[in-house]
């Protein structure tokens, strides 16, 4: 329990790094100043004291939230790519870590790399130092670096990690685009309609009062919606925000609810196949990468299951792992889940029979990467006319209902 607790605290500290401005005197009594990244003022004072600086003033630098104070997936990918380049060029590990730390302007990443450097310089292996940060470093990264240390091919494994993460990030970005694009269309339509109801419709309402005639039913309905929006807009906004926050919190806290949400995502008419193909591609790519590095199949399956991005697939792969450990073939265990496509199952079966499982898994990943990209491009193309229909229906409906009394008045004249 102790090592896990320590690694959890270390990972949390890296994510809470802050930029401090300091002033003080060096060993010669000269006034010096600068900026430094750390998790607390005590941490900064300790670092400066080790450099012979007596701190006289220390303040936190004010920055916009999230500006470099959180480690992103792209930061870890860039870190792996830079480390691979430096080590391949013959730069020692500690010096490579120092170069990467000094070359980034993101405080959280710099503190993370400096922490790794301190751990490695104290005698810890690079893989163990990375394993102490499970919040940012996954098991795939740790397994490959451990294999690279044992085989003397650290640069090749770092390069493989970077390439793998770049492909996963590209795939994840395509899936996000498929999910966010429809939501953005609906949000824009609702926003424009709300603006018309709150700002434009009241102007027409004042004009209609001077007519003294009964208004058409669509116009009365629009005016009623406008009055409700004017008086209740902040309650509706608060209710929507609260509902979204509560739903997200419940999904995070309830494994059963999170599982049902993942299952629902797979059953969506257009997005479901995209999410399914993306999960298969991630699983295949990760399993191929770890298996090629000499990681045992059981550990490789555990790592691959954690990157699928869908709880239904994660639980299914855990069952696959259990069945394979009981002696079943991989393709047969995958078939019993009912989640993998016939093409993926056939390719895995061929790979097992021919001893080329890594190559077959990479082909499966490449195929579904291309299919996800093609489906997202098709969805984007189809969404463009849908945008026109949604905005035209919402905005046009409001505009037409407001001009109906004017048309009636013109026909009467």
Automatic annotation (TrEMBL):
Q: How does it sit in the membrane?
A: Multi-pass membrane protein
Q: Which family does it belong to?
A: Belongs to the GSP F family.
Q: Does the keyword Transmembrane apply?
A: yes
The Gene Ontology biological process annotation of the record reads: protein secretion by the type II secretion system
Where is it mostly found?
A: membrane
Has the keyword Cell membrane been applied to this entry? yes
Q: Where is the Type II secretion system protein GspF domain?
A: 79-202, 283-405
InterPro entries recorded for this chain?
Answer: GspF/PilC (IPR003004), T2SS_GspF/T4SS_PilC_CS (IPR001992), T2SS_GspF_dom (IPR018076), T2SS_GspF_sf (IPR042094)
The GO cellular component terms are: plasma membrane
> Where do transmembrane segments lie in this chain?
178-198, 231-247, 385-404
Query: Per its record, how is this protein called by name?
Result: Type IV pilus assembly protein PilC
Keywords, A to Z? Cell inner membrane, Cell membrane, Membrane, Transmembrane, Transmembrane helix, Transport
């Amino acid at each position: 329990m102790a090592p896990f607790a320590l690694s959890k605290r270390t990972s949390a500290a890296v994510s809470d790094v802050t930029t401090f401005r300091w002033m003080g005197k060096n060993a010669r009594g000269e006034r010096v100043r600068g900026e430094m990244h750390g998790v607390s003022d005590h941490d900064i004072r300790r670092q400066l004291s080790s450099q012979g600086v007596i701190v006289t003033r220390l303040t936190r630098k004010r920055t916009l939230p999230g500006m470099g104070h959180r480690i992103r997936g792209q930061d870890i990918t860039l870190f792996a790519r830079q480390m691979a380049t430096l080590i391949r060029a013959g730069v020692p590990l500690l010096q490579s870590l120092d170069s990467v730390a000094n070359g980034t302007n993101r405080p959280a990443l710099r503190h993370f790399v400096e922490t790794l450097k301190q751990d490695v310089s104290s005698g810890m292996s690079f893989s163990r130092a990375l394993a102490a940060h499970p919040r940012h470093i996954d098991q795939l990264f740790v397994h490959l670096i451990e294999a690279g240390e044992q085989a003397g091919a650290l640069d090749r494994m770092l390069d493989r990690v970077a390439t793998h993460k770049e492909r996963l990030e590209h795939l994840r970005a395509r899936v996000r685009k498929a999910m966010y694009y429809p939501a953005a269309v609906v949000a824009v339509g609702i926003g424009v309609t709300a603006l018309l109801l709150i700002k434009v419709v009241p102007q027409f309402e004042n004009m209609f009062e001077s007519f003294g005639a009964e208004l058409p039913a669509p116009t009365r309905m629009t005016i009623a919606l406008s009055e409700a929006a004017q008086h209740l807009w902040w309650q509706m906004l608060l209710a929507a925000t609260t509902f979204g926050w509560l739903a997200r919190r419940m999904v995070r806290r309830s494994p059963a609810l999170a599982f049902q949400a993942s299952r629902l995502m797979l059953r969506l008419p257009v997005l479901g196949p995209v999410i399914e193909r993306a999960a298969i591609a991630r699983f295949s790519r990760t399993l191929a990468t770890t298996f090629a590095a000499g990681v045992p199949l059981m550990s490789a399956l555990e790592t691959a299951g954690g990157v699928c991005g869908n709880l239904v697939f994660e639980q299914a792969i855990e069952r696959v792992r259990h069945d394979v450990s009981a002696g079943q073939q991989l393709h047969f265990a995958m078939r019993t889940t009912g989640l993998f496509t016939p093409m993926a199952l056939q390719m895995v079966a061929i790979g097992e029979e021919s001893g080329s499982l890594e190559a077959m898994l990479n082909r499966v990943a490449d195929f579904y990467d291309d299919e996800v990209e093609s489906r997202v491009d098709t969805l984007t193309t189809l969404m463009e006319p849908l945008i026109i229909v949604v905005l035209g229906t919402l905005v046009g409906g409001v505009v037409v209902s407001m001009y109906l009394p004017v048309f009636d008045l013109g026909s009467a004249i």
